[in-house]
Amino acid sequence: MSNTVNACELLQAPAEPRERLPVGGLLALATAGFITLMTETLPAGLLPQMSAGLGVSAALIGQLVTVYALGSLLAAIPLILLTQGWRRRPLLLIAIGGFALVNSVTALSSDYRLILLARLCAGVFAGLLWALLAGYASRMVAPHLQGRAITLAMLGAPLALSVGMPAGTWLGSLLGWRMSFAVMTLLTLALIGWVLVQVPDFPGLRTQKRLSLGRVLTLPGIRPVLFVTFAYVLGHNILYTYIAPFLQPAGLGEQIERVLLVFGLAALLSIWLVGLLIDR
Q1: CA-CA distance, 185 to 148, in Å (whole number)?
Q2: How far apart are CA 186 and CA 164, in angstroms?
């Protein structure tokens, strides 16, 4: 889904191409991705604690991830199409600020239904943010650096899997699951300041540069890429969401943090290899 919209944004060259990677700004984008994925997956690592704390079954806690994905699915493409003409940094800040709100609700509320609604809204913000990241990073650099810039901006996802999730799960086990979401809110507020200082603003796409959704879907190769992405993410999320009960029969229920660490390190290794080769 985000690939579809990114295809539109990548058509517009950077306003002021840079010959060196603006590492500070790209890492801010990576941190936004980190927060997005952490918000999405934290219920998986904290599933037993959240189930006990909210008085609902583990299956219902798993649905907190499902409705997050549903929010992204339903809202991402319509939102991006509606906001193509908006300036990029204000739109990015709206998406990031949304996570401060929804994680605060999750940390403070004892009402499962309210948390479920907050998670749906979080998915909407996530769909908006993921669709922005790659196009935003590509506009910050010269064309021959775009692959590495996008790779660096997407580094937040594997870091969330390799470091963030084990740390969030450990923190939840030590201080309670609510504290994990409260820390996410504080990190988000700090990121807003970072973006204001390090990430440049860009205009939205001009009317003549915009592509309709139907036109995007006819771009060569886009449909196979979208299908492979959909199939992979579906399988990944089913396993990742219910990793805690999946590990119980194998006697690994007390080692969730280690399993998540291995899972994320494999993702980190793969994105490093892609970063080395992509611009060739």
Answers
A1: 29
A2: 14
- The pLDDT, as a whole number, for residue 239 is 81
Helix/strand/coil (H/E/C) assignment for every residue in 137-191: HHHCCCHHHHHHHHHHHCCHHHHHHHHHHHHHHHHHHHHCHHHHHHHHHHHHHHH
How would you class 37 by CB atoms within 10 Å of its CB: exposed for 0-12, middle for 13-18, buried for 19 or more? buried
Q: For the CA atoms of 82, 104, 3, 84, what is the dihedral angle to 10 degrees?
A: 20
Joined together, the tokens standing for residue 103 give 């994680």
* Residue 250 DSSP one-character state: G
Q: Would you list the domain boundaries of the chain?
A: 2-9+20-277
Q: From 3.10.129.10, 1.10.357.140, 1.20.1250.20, 1.20.120.530, which CATH number describes the 2-9+20-277 domain? A: 1.20.1250.20
Q: Which residues are CB-neighbours of 175 under 8 A, at least 6 positions away?
A: none
What is the tens place of the pLDDT at every residue in 175-188?
Answer: 889 999 999 999 99
What's the whole-model pTM score?
A: 0.79
Mean pLDDT of successive 10-residue segments in the chain (280 residues)? 45 52 93 92 86 91 89 84 88 94 94 94 92 90 87 84 78 88 94 95 75 79 90 83 80 77 80 78
